[in-house]
Design goal:
Chain A has 353 residues and is of the alpha/beta class. The first copy, chain A, has 14 helices and 11 strands. The first copy, chain A, folds into 2 domains: 160 residues, 3-Layer(aba) Sandwich (Isopropylmalate Dehydrogenase), CATH 3.40.718.10; 155 residues, Isopropylmalate Dehydrogenase, CATH 3.40.718.10.
Chain lengths: 353, 353
């Protein structure tokens, strides 16, 4: 459901650093995106959040509705326990708001496994999807590459990888605006003989399924940041390792950069000139808070997962992604893609009879 | 075998850009490491390399012995074909020099699969090792983290991961000089319940084997560049993806950096001051040629694999790694570690009887 003014349902209790992250995050995103007209349903403990909201700026107060919840999902809760015990928690209720059509998208910084499990119960999966995936939008010189799965499914069969391709392609078209996104399958080499059985089988499945999207074939790790394809498909084990390893490498470069910028007087003068010039732009590019927000794909409803340990600026980025998604045709795109997948499967099984 | 002056056996025909890479690489490393006294056995086509050597500087000519070979392994050869057909090739003969004790270490930029397969035939594997691994030395703020396997074994069982831990720990002690290297197992989370069956089983095996090295437990992707442990163990699929994804991320940061340094006049002035200060240091840190060289572990002999597409500066880095290894006690260290692994296995099977 899309409206002219997006309504974002927020799990205010999910962030490691408490509900102030969500309240201040709303303030930041309203200043960054004054044109959006976004409104927020804030699910959480009134006793904690009420006073924070009273201290907030007028626009935040005007656009936010606080909805009290008695409990919250903890970071240590196992997904199965969370599903049984979390009815009425801030995470649960934030999802119910989307299910009931009161909001367009959920944003939560809570426990990933619990969010995945509760989302499946509250929103249910789309027809044709066996398990949801988490996607990350990876910045590249050409725009964004959508990488999935980045951690929801540590072991995936070939048909799941095909579903991820379908969902990622629809997501890129809807949110990043490509008319014909290209899709690559992450592997350790580009030749057809390389890799493990699962990726080789997925490669054949995609080619044989006759789904009319632009399939590039295998890509390697360095192709992600180069933006060789718009979508990169992988299992949640390799995807999570790729995402976190890249984050670590970028932090390492940041460390070396600070070292060089303070290594001598002329370096310090240079850094001072640069900060008038392009350094702030570079800093914001390298700031993990500027790319915060994974998206749960495959559900009847849109869910954004923020890093648990983010600050309010990072949470604002995840809220901004929610606003983009609310205004996009993502759910329609993904349904159209899944219908093509199901049709291709039926055509194949008829041909086999 | 170590000598006061290391002897490096070079497969001169392996690099994508031809044998000039090896000839010029020798010149570069002799200038970078004048104290090493290194000598080189250069295996390759005399008709091509002879004239290049005649053009080379006096020191390169003095330290290099050219050994003619009629054939070479091509990048497109499958490992099994290469083993059958490559006897007498530059790759094969460079390995034979180490087997016969004429050289301490082999350096090749040739086809990885073929190098692995031919190394197993010529040098054979150490007792206790089922398959060799390729390790990469990853720069961190604390020194180097040894990551293995980065591409030799795309599917690994738990006991193989334990062997990688044993070999990586010995390698770090011998080449990077730690007295007690710490070992981590790459996973998607630090909790014991996270990850797939293989890494959980390997975690238990390492804990139960009673091998007295410093086992840290699970690490995540971002821990590699932070240098949380000295050794990071993973299967060749995830390890290759991690390595290449990090390379891609570092290239992306380089792209953004060039963008910022030329985005305005003050940025250009800043970059000019920086180039007097610390920028060259940063550039060399970010230069993939400065970290070129994977090492094949688990063989009765030392083998360094250079990137195929490297230039002569990058090849010199791989030669430098070979010089470091020649002067190290790596083969002794790894044998001591493997003996501990075998002893631990025997103690366990006796206890089980």
């Amino acid at each position: 459901m899309t409206r002219s003014a997006p309504i974002i349902s927020v799990d205010a209790m999910g962030a490691d650093h408490g509900p102030s992250i969500a309240v201040e995050g709303i303030g930041h995103i309203l200043r960054r995106r004054p044109e959006s007209q976004a409104k927020f349903l804030l699910h959480g403990d009134e006793a904690q959040i009420g006073p924070m909201l009273e201290q907030a700026d007028a626009l935040t107060r005007e656009r936010t509705t606080l909805l009290h919840t008695d409990s919250e999902v903890r970071m240590t809760d196992k997904p199965s326990e969370a599903v049984r015990r979390s009815r009425g928690s801030s995470m649960w209720n934030s999802l119910v708001s989307v299910k009931n059509g009161e909001a367009d998208v959920v944003v939560s910084a809570g426990n990933t496994g619990a969010l995945m499990a509760i989302s499946k119960v509250v929103l249910r999966m789309k027809k044709g999807v066996h398990r949801p995936a988490i996607s990350a939008s990876w910045p590249t010189p050409r725009g964004h590459t959508v990488v999935l799965d980045v951690g929801a499914n540590v072991e995936c069969g070939p048909s799941q990888l095909v579903e991820f391709a379908i969902m990622g392609e629809a997501f890129h078209r809807a949110v990043h605006g490509s008319s014909e996104p290209t899709v690559g399958l992450l592997n350790v080499g580009q030749e057809e003989l390389k890799g493990n059985d699962t990726v080789r089988a997925a490669d054949r499945l995609i080619r044989d399924a006759g789904i009319d999207f632009k399939y590039h074939g295998f890509v390697e790790g360095d192709d992600i940041s180069l933006g060789i394809t718009d979508v990169v498909v992988t299992d949640g084990f390799s995807g999570n390792i790729a995402l976190k390893t890249a984050e670590g490498a970028v932090k390492l470069v940041g460390h070396w950069m600070r070292e060089s910028f303070t290594s001598s007087l002329s370096a310090k003068i240079g850094a001072a000139f640069l900060s008038m010039g392009g350094l702030d732009h570079l800093r914001s590019k390298l700031d993990p808070r500027s790319i915060n927000g994974g998206v749960l794909l495959g559900l009847n409803g849109m869910v954004v997962k923020s890093h648990g340990g983010t600050d309010s600026e990072g949470f604002a980025t995840a809220l901004g992604l929610g606003i983009d998604m609310a205004g996009s045709g993502f759910l329609t795109e993904i349904e159209a893609n899944l219908a093509r997948l199901i049709a291709a499967g039926e055509a194949q099984s008829q041909a086999a009879q």
